[in-house]
Amino acid sequence: MVASVPIAAVDVKRFAGNLLESACDCLVILVGNDGLRSTAAAQIDQALGPWIRTAIESSSIKTGHGDVTIMPAPMIGSARPGAKQWMIIGTGEAAKLTRGKAFELGAIVTRHLIDAKRDRIVISNGDLVSEDAIDSFIAGLCVGSDGQAILMSKPKIYAPSLIEIENASDQALHLGKVTGDSMNVTRRLVNEPPNRIYPESFADAATAIAGEVGLGIEVWDEKRLLAERCRAMLAVGQASERPPRLVILRHFGTDRDVAPIAIVGKGVTFDSGGLSIKPSEGMADMKCDMAGAATVVGVMRAVALLKLPINVIGLCGLAENMIAGDAYRLGDVIETRKGVMIEILNTDAEGRVVLADTLDVAVENGPSQIVDLATLTGACMVALGRDVAGLMSNDDSLCREIADQATHQGEYAWQLPMFEMYNEHISSKVADIKNIGDGRWGGAITAAKFLERFVGDVPWVHIDIAGPAFAESPKPHRDAGATGAMLRTLLGWLQSRAAG
């Protein structure tokens, strides 16, 4: 049983001292391709002649975004350098170094330095990463320090113990570290194998995190779920030896009578497809089907540590979709907590069934808005690809807020239509609704229309993260596996709400 979620414990501080003389394992030197250089780059050119400038002009050092050159630190006069290595990394054009690009740049730095033990890293930024983006750069440093190789007998990743950054405020350091560490909590939960993370152990991990950061927490076991009429969630999990759980996390940042914002996550800790069984290649990565719930935990952790002056409630609907003699069947009709009758026509469309009850519990808590996250449909990937989240909503204004925040943070999200005619696709002949649409057309939208039945009049946005939540292959700024997608967007949105 996993009762805690260890992550790379990187301490991040502001640098004070002489950049070239300070003893460290690596001095990271930022340079731009528009002639801008960090403080250390200017000092090196002053001490050694225009050494870096000449190397850039001769293309020995490249300065495009994320271009990396690592070398032993040379002698400067008769003095030995403080650093053992120099990393010179290009920022590209300063005007294009957005929050998203700054996050990627920070992650690229640490991903190039975790192949061997380097305890102390010093970063000379100057003002290439702006004050508005430096916290995002710091979050990237933290995320780049952790990956999916979490259970190897011999370590593959060596996270630095200390990173010191020039020209970073205390506020930026705190926000960046909280954001990056919270993303790593989400990523670790998703990357854990399904024999270690299942409904009960997920709830235990969430309980441990809540205790660490001061969140309120309530866990509904199978007896409480039955008493609360959460029959849909129980049906999905009834074939598993690991019974379902509902985790409710609460942050009170203002008067308790102020309506909270609800963040809801799908937490299918393993999805075999049930009787609508997946092929082996489609089942191999289905530990990631709880990424929505893991994102809720990460967001709530960050909200608590940042002490946001708003009320937020996070709900994680947790179940394991397995096969046994008592598995829920095609043709079954299930009464949800809300009283809506669902005809089951595909047991692999289970996430929306779990969310039906979870959303109803959220509504009962009187939220001002609801946002849910779910690795819900392959259809969303067909429509938008692997890197883009789909947004569907009953409130265009709220949806635009989320979409604009995603753009601001450098994440990719796109709104899909929710025309009333799509309701016909989930109409059942024997019950109120069915859990799949008509054929393969518009599958991401018909799944959202299903969820819409359980939010009532509450302004609501559904985020389908089936594509971006889990990556099959790495990129320069991230490992394969869990990505923590949309955590920065939701946290930024909640910060904007807190700011009024």
Task: Report on the architecture of this protein.
By secondary structure, the protein is α/β, with parallel strands linked by helices. The protein folds into 2 domains: 11-167, Leucine Aminopeptidase, subunit E, domain 1 (3-Layer(aba) Sandwich), CATH 3.40.220; 184-499, Zn peptidases (Aminopeptidase). It is built from 15 helices and 19 strands. The chain has helices at residues 39-48, 51-57, 99-111, 134-144, 170-191, 199-213, 222-227, 231-237, 280-283, 291-306, 351-364, 378-384, 396-409, 443-452, 487-499; strands at residues 11-14, 24-31, 68-72, 83-90, 120-124, 162-165, 216-220, 245-252, 261-271, 311-321, 333-335, 341-343, 369-374, 389-393, 413-415, 433-434, 460-464, 470-471, 481-482. The strands form 4 sheets. The protein has an 8-stranded mixed sheet with strand order 7-8-10-9-13-17-14-15, with helices on both faces. It has a 6-stranded mixed sheet with strand order 1-6-5-2-4-3. A 3-stranded mixed sheet has the order 11-12-16, with helices on one face. A hairpin with a 5-residue loop joins strand 11 (333-335) and strand 12. The protein is elongated. 55% of the residues are buried. The mean pLDDT is 95.
In short:
By secondary structure, the protein is of the alpha/beta class. The protein contains 15 helices and 19 strands.
- Mean pLDDT metric: 95
Structural class of the helix and strand makeup?
alpha/beta
Adjacency order of strands in the biggest sheet = 7-8-10-9-13-17-14-15
Please name the fourth-level CATH homologous superfamily of the largest domain. Answer: Zn peptidases
Give the uncertain stretches in residue-range form: none
CATH architecture of the largest domain: 3-Layer(aba) Sandwich
State the shape.
elongated
Per the CATH scheme, the topology name of the largest domain is Aminopeptidase
Q: Give the N-to-C terminal Cα separation.
A: 41 Å
Number of helices: 15
CATH class of the largest domain, named Alpha Beta
Please tell me how large the radius of gyration is: 24 Å
Q: How many domain units?
A: 2
Percentage of helical residues?
25-40%
Could you tell me the strand content as a percent range?
15-25%
Main beta-sheet strand count, sense and barrel state = 8 strands, mixed
The tally of strands reads 19
